[in-house]
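User: Round two. Same drill as before: sequence, then structure, for each protein.

Assistant: Same drill it is. First protein:
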Amino acid sequence: MKVDIIAGARPNFMKIAPIISAIRERQKKGSHLSFRLVHTGQHYDRAMSGRFFEELNIPEPDVNLEVGSGTQAEQTGAIMIRYEKLLLDHPSDLCLVVGDVTSTMACSIAAKKLNMKVAHVEGGIRSFDMTMPEEVNRLVTDVLTDYFFTTSEVANQNLLRSGVPPQAIFFVGNTMIDTLLLNQPRFSPPTFWHGLNLQASNFFVVTLHRPSNVDSAEKLTSLLVQITLGADGLPVIFPVHPRTKKTLQGTAMSWPNLHIVEPLGYLEFNYLVSKAKGVITDSGGVTEEATVLGIPCMTLRNSTERPETVTIGTNELLGTDPQVIRPAMLKIMQGRWKQGGVPEKWDGKTAVRIVEILEKLS
């Protein structure tokens, strides 16, 4: 069976790396599975894409659709057109998509219209917030999916309630955590670590990129003011997403303990998270990584598609009101944050389970 593995944006890369590795290991033992890595080009600059391929030992894509920038509709249309042409010229047996980015949805639609089977890694997760583009992507993708590889019992129940037959659901765990655990010994300090005199458990990490938090200079400034004050003089490291950087350029934001840095590679960023006193984020993936690393995490969103990071892990959903940030950070400073645990099957063996199932399905 030939599997198309779809990657388009930075969150995808950590999820596909262990699947590719697991297929290669099975091939050494005579497996009939093969794969074609299709990069849609949704994230197209080196800082957001190429560096991750190198760090995570992901092979060069077999195909790059090179869709580049554009509105979500423009990107969706371009991906569908180019992926459809690829399938018409060079068919495959299964389209395997991961996560919930535009590429996930677009390739699922193109594949299904050609009567191709679709498998969704991270199927069934829901925020129930239709203002999030990712939620639309999840819903559309899961309507088209034939095989669901899920990260939690919550996702399983979401799918069952929507009418998905139980035999199509495979509770396998979280491939992002496969990548995290495999690479943990390789985490490395960023170049500014010594220059800023950073010390373990003595700084905070911030990541913000969602439109509700970063598109308004006033809102973004309000959030950063409360974060820097809540840090009580401790360094705040803020790797800036390109979207956020545009907003910051129009402000006079300057605090002695706020350090705005360029986007980091996977190994450097997770070194920071693993050594941080706490993380403030609006990224779902970061909440998963912080949970497994045992680092207090505050999510500046009103909903999460990863509730297990809250009910089991170290994450707390704060909302987007800047005034809630300092009391939460005070809990961390005083050592009153919950300990948290690791969700079931987040054990580094998810990709192996997925590949074993793919072999049986073929």
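Second protein:
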Amino acid sequence: MIDTHCHIDFKEYNKNREEIMDRAQHKLKAIINSGASLGGNRRTLKFTDEYKGFLYPTLGFHPLNASKADYDIIEKALNEIKESIDKIVAIGETGLDYHELNNDKSKERQIKVFKTFIELASEYELPLVIHAREAEKEALDIVMKYSSLPDIIFHCYGGDPETAHKIVDLGYYLSFSTIICFSKDHQLLIKDQPLSNMLTETDSPYLSPFKGLRNEPSFVEEVVKKIADIKSISTNKVDKITENNAKKIFRI
């Protein structure tokens, strides 16, 4: 099993990160840690060195951070990503997040930053990890215009079924998180999507499948189990296909 999207660098893990990583290493083949800010990218690279061969980095800038960060900070993040381009397995997360966003200026800013990161992924021919919330169709319309991206992943997908089908028809990937353990809408989405275009993730420390417990990478097992249950197939089959998808996309 591979957790293809988590944030082990977040402060929520500062008190017991070693314990969390120990559990992950005992259960999983790898984790993909996603940088979401300038500081997050730096921490992600640091943990990549500490957990070499197990933790793989993607570096980006979360759209909500892009809405408010100074452009010089975003520029610095872009430059540092370029300096570390040989160490990373994808660009992202990046994208559009219109949840509770109520002004056009912030949307325009998100779109501008999103396109900049798409261009970066396109230039270096790296996979792109997209965060799209209440903007899935718009994010897809934008990314479709770039033909040189090797792979595109809509992480923690929660959009409508029509957009999901279009993503799959284009050969892109849908990543489903531990939210499927308790969200009926997400469970319905999975029912109609092929394993060949599916990845598993936790998006930890968020979206815990266990009430009262903080999420962590080892809990990606619950995603595999739930997909197997929804599709009435074995957990081994889900595990094998989604793990192979991750290995192919991220070249790990």
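The first strand starts at residue 2 and ends at 6.

User: Perfect.
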